[in-house]
Amino acid sequence: MARSLNPNSTGHTPLPTRPADPPRRGVLAGLVAVIIGGLVSLFPLGAGALVLLDPILKRKSKPAAGGGDKDEGRPFRRVAMVDALPADGTPVQVPVIADLTDAWNREPNQPIGAVYLRKLADGQVECFNAKCPHAGCFVGYSADRKVFQCPCHTSSFELDGKRILPSPSPRNMDDLVVDAEKLRTGEVWVQFVNYYPGHEKREAKP
């Protein structure tokens, strides 16, 4: 009797083995872990971005001053002493100094503009922005003519800031608010505002 060639001692032919299923659960678990890890890593990045952008967001959240004379939110700045102004009403130009702050930097004591101050007979002080409302050039004072004169386009203004017609300037000089309480202490504090030139109606810059 011939010997069986089947290596199985039982004499039965073994069934072909089925290839194992791919580890789907393991792949899915790994994918979920990667997604969760990515989401978790976004939290410190988001927190860092908020810290970095915080000064910019705060600056944008501040309401800008509206047009015209709605400038109640503007700070008053000390610009001169009352005793330093001529008693005869001659205008004096003085710089306006302030601390400049952008999103991350602070530069103290920087010039941000200039004003003309004029002491009146009753002890009050008039203040005008030194920029011409026509094109933004700095206005000079002519002691001979006793008028304000713009060197750029020959706009002229009276001592009270009213334009002398005909004039290329669309409006009078921009008058600014002086703190009456501070005047009693001998100091001149001004609510400084720069206005856009070239418009008939005043519109405050941010």
Question: What is this entry, summarized?
Answer:
The protein has 206 residues and is an alpha+beta fold. 20% of the residues lie in helices and 24% in strands.
- Total strands: the figure is 9
Average pLDDT confidence is 80
Could you say what the CATH topology of the largest domain is called?
A: Rieske Iron-sulfur Protein
User: What is the alpha-carbon Rg in Å?
Assistant: 38 Å
Strand order of the largest sheet: 1-9-8
Quickly count the helices.
Answer: 2
Point out poorly predicted stretches: 58-70
When the domains are counted, the total is 2
What is the top-level CATH class of the largest domain? Mainly Beta
User: What is the name of the CATH architecture of the largest domain?
Assistant: 3-layer Sandwich
Largest sheet: 3 strands, antiparallel
Q: How widely separated are the two ends? A: 110 Å
Structural class: alpha+beta
What general form does the structure show? elongated
Percentage beta strand: 15-25%
Give the topology string: H per helix, E per strand: HEEEEEEEEHE
Residues in helix, %: 10-25%
